[in-house]
């Protein structure tokens, strides 16, 4: 009958369908699994590649940092060496200039001494000892006997004036005592003001006499 025929035909077809469906599903699942594995492998490879790039970048940055530090250190060292070289060169030039000035001064002093000897062989040593550096250099280029005669007279006269200025009159001592009280220690430009107050002595003479008076006063108190 048709129903029996349909029943007998249905079950084999159904079995075939189920078998095909099962195989198809397994194939689909296998393909999906293979795709998932492939995708996972691709992700792993991509992550590995990214990690490798990051590691290489970190290594490159560290290397660049080390090279930069080495360059900076080298530049600092070169700057230090350059400054040291410049200082040494400046010091060498200063010493050379000082030596040249010393030689020029000694030569000038020798020329002045020879000229002074011709004018006054007895007084030239004393006159020469009282000449400062500028005077030696100035007179070394002067020619003419009269200039050195004037120089000797000027120096000897200056010695006499110094001897005269060393003597103190009673009036000067009184004015000095008054000035010392008027301008006590700690006063700005004290000795200049005292010199101007006296008007007849140098600061050197005033300081020497003030020390002498102070020593006498201290001796009396003892």
TrEMBL record:
Source domain of life: Eukaryota
Keywords: Membrane, Signal, Transmembrane, Transmembrane helix
Signal peptide: 1-21
Membrane topology of this protein: Single-pass membrane protein
InterPro entries, per database record: DnaJ_domain_protein, Homeodomain-like_sf, SANT/Myb, SANT_dom
Region (Disordered): 43-93
Location in the cell: Endomembrane system
One Pfam entry name: Myb_DNA-binding_2
GO cellular component assignments: endomembrane system
Residue ranges annotated for the SANT domain, each copy included: 163-218
CDD domains cross-referenced by the UniProt entry: SANT
Descriptive protein name: SANT domain-containing protein
Source organism of the structure: Perkinsus olseni
């Amino acid at each position: 009958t048709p129903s029996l025929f349909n029943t007998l035909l249905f079950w084999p077809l159904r079995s075939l369908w189920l078998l095909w469906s099962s195989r198809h599903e397994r194939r689909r699942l296998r393909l999906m699994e293979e795709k998932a594995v492939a995708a996972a492998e691709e992700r792993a490879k991509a992550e590995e590649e990214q990690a490798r790039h990051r590691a290489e970048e970190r290594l490159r940055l560290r290397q660049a940092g080390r090279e930069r530090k080495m360059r900076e250190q080298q530049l600092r060292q070169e700057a230090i060496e350059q400054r040291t070289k410049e200082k040494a060169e400046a010091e060498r030039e200063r010493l050379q200039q000082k030596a040249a000035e010393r030689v020029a001064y000694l030569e000038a002093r020798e020329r002045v001494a020879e000229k002074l000897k011709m004018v006054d062989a007895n007084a030239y040593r004393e006159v020469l000892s009282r000449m400062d550096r500028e005077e030696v250099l100035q007179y070394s280029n002067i020619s003419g006997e009269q200039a050195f005669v004037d120089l000797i007279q000027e120096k000897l006269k200056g010695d006499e004036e110094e001897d005269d200025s060393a003597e103190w009159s009673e009036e000067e001592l009184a004015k000095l005592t008054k000035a010392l009280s008027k301008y006590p220690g700690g006063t700005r430009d004290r000795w200049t003001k005292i010199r101007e107050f006296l008007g007849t002595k140098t600061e050197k003479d005033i300081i020497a006499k003030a020390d002498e008076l102070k020593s006498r006063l201290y001796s009396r108190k003892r």
